[in-house]
Amino acid sequence: MKLAEKDDHHGSNDNEKFEKLLxxxxxxxxxxxxxxxxxxxxxxxxxxMQTAGISDYEAYQDYLEVHPEEFSELFNAILINxxxxxxxxxxWDYLAKEIIPKIVASKKKDEVIRIWSAGCATGEEVYTIAMxxxxxxxxxxxxxxxxxxxTDIDELALANARRAxxxxxxxxxxxxxxxxxxxxHSGDSYSFIARLRVPIIFxxxxxxxxxxxxxxxxxxxxxxxxxxxxEAQARILAKFHFGLNDTGFIFxxxxxxxxxxxxxxxxxxxxxxxxxxxxxxxxxxxxxxPEKETLAKAPEHHTLSQIRxxxxxxxxxxxxxxxxxxxxxxxFANRQARKIFGxxxxxxxxxxxxxxxxxxxxxxxxxxxxxxxxxxxxxxKKVERILPNNGGVRYVDIEITPLLQDGGIxxxxxxxxxxxxxxxxxxxxxxxAKHELQSTNEVLVTMNEExxxxxExxxxxxxxxxxxxxELQSTNExxxxxxDELNQRSDxxxxxxxxxxxxLGSLHRGFVLVDKDGCILTWNHEAEELWGxxxxxxxxxxxxxQEMGLPVEQLAxxxxxxxxxxxxxxxxxxxxxxxxxxxxxHMTLAPLMEPGRxxxxxxxLMEEIKKxx
Length: 613
Description:
single chain; Rossmann fold; 4 domains; 5-stranded antiparallel β-sheet; Chemotaxis Receptor Methyltransferase Cher, domain 1; 7-stranded mixed β-sheet; alpha+beta; Beta-Lactamase
């Protein structure tokens, strides 16, 4: 987490109240939030104030005293835990393929590998490195040789990390193979398997105030430093450097790469933010002094007025300038240098290494030594200088030039500081704008490709619809033809039915048609008159169960014989109809033949035999 300069947009009165609120939080809860970026800090505290309906820092401090539960909500708002499994997957792939094999190869067979996840949040990062180490070593060696320290300042996040339980959405970045191998699925949640949690140690740790973990082979601190200010970043990186073995790696987040790392770490892969520790050489305690015979006195023939002109010119220079004697003492510092570095006339003739300016900016001493050793100018661009009053950052170009007497004898060094902060900021803005433009262009290209693909899909769909429409038209024509045929057959059937009705009506006899099961298919008008039963009431019903006075039981055998053999027969029956009239009937029975000479039913003609007078 990188913490920023104070917000100059707030009035001085508001700033004083804000500082008092920070003092109050530090005294009551031991949380020194001044290491945070002030604009970010003000914005997040402001949200909590807005939620509480408060617009004044002093009133919010009073509110905290009355409502202690608000502290928890406030710190949850400030400590934002954003993490995921395999976040920025290509960087984890690089770590697995390039870095972890180097770490394993550098260790003896039984030597412990120590890893620290600083700012582990809810644990996804911890279990990601655990899976990769298990893949590299195998389960037995992983449990025996690996120690993973996972720390965060947020106790609630640590509790969730220890529980190791995640939702299906949390698991989306995890490859399916790893999901099956390392997690137990229960209901809507996934739990990291318990037997592989043994090498993992969780604990609360404040990166600024607490002692750091040491003897590390890999230190993972991703998207945590960016919430701290530059001064806090420098302090944390120095501690990280101390905690790593000389061959140790540090793995940072994509959003952070402070210039503070330059003298401590060397990039292995800048894109992936993976750095290698630079073993710190023993610093020189003081600037090396040349042999006495190489020293020379300054010329003495200048007039007093010339010397005054030289001093006035040096004093009026727009850039900060410092002159050192060869013995390492401060000889001159112009007005700009005194203003920027807080120097006073009393600092003249003091050892330069005893002054704060000698290590602000960082790395100045090594540059001075390099210039002295080579006896040539040394230039360094964009050196970061942290402001002591508010932790702000300025960028300076440093030029160190040996001052030589006639004959090339060195008599001192001139150090010139050029504040190029605005220029570098503009360059950064320009680079950022270029990246954004490139990103936007890539998005537009992708959108154009997707648009072209959609157009092609629409064209294909249109062709398929046209084909389908032609098929539907053909089907419709076939249906129309079939419908015409059905209409024709319906007309033919109606004509046949009319003809049949005409024929049956002209018989002047009762006519009954039954199917093979004895169900009545036709019952003409004469049959209705003869037996007193309406066709509508008996059609489809069994002929042999009708109560009409006809002795149907005497017809059962002849009808069955007709159905079986297909031969017609005649017989005379006596009957009494429903009106009580006694009848003597001449019955003619014949088979109903289908195509193929199959019998499908029986025909019955009933004619009353009238007695002659």
